[in-house]
Design a protein that fits this description.
This protein is mainly alpha-helical. The chain has a single domain, classed as Large-conductance mechanosensitive channel, MscL, domain 1 (Non-ribosomal Peptide Synthetase Peptidyl Carrier Protein, Chain A), CATH 1.10.1200.120. It has five helices and two strands. A two-stranded antiparallel ribbon has the order 1-2.
């Protein structure tokens, strides 16, 4: 059983998947920073300087006027954090777009490689064994 597990781990697909997960986690941090540090301030400018990530509505409970989202959550009040939800949607759309672009690029590279293989001229096939034997026989008869 241990040998089977070693064989499973050594397969390329498992290693590729592990690398993909690690890179995906790092990429998520980059996208989170992109949205939080670059996109949200631009959106905030259009919304009159409001921090988009801290937008919420109080459903029930007491929350101090102008309290941050974190303070509202700590107060125990029921809140509807629509700003965080919209940020999650923006993160998803950015990640989905980048993955789409990567897949599109990989598909183009594969397509160009396939076309190059098709366009490569085929080398003429040499004579078959029977043809060589027939030529030798003809030469010996002379």
């Amino acid at each position: 059983m241990l040998n089977e597990f070693k064989d499973f781990i050594a397969k390329g697909n498992v290693m590729d998947m592990a690398v993909g997960i690690i890179i995906g986690a790092a990429f998520t941090a980059i996208v989170t920073s992109l949205v939080g540090d670059l996109i949200n301030p631009i959106i905030g400018l259009f919304m009159g300087g409001i921090d988009f990530a801290n937008q919420y509505s109080v459903l029930s409970g007491d929350v101090a006027e102008g309290a941050s989202l974190e303070a509202a959550r700590e107060s125990g009040a029921a809140i509807f954090a629509w700003g965080s939800f919209i940020m999650a949607i923006i993160n998803f759309l950015i990640i989905a777009f980048v993955v789409f672009m990567l897949v599109r690029y990989v598909n183009k590279v594969k397509e160009m490689s396939a076309k190059a293989e098709e366009a490569a001229p085929e080398e003429p096939a040499g004579p078959t064994q029977e043809e060589l034997l027939a030529d030798i026989l003809a030469a010996l008869k002379k």
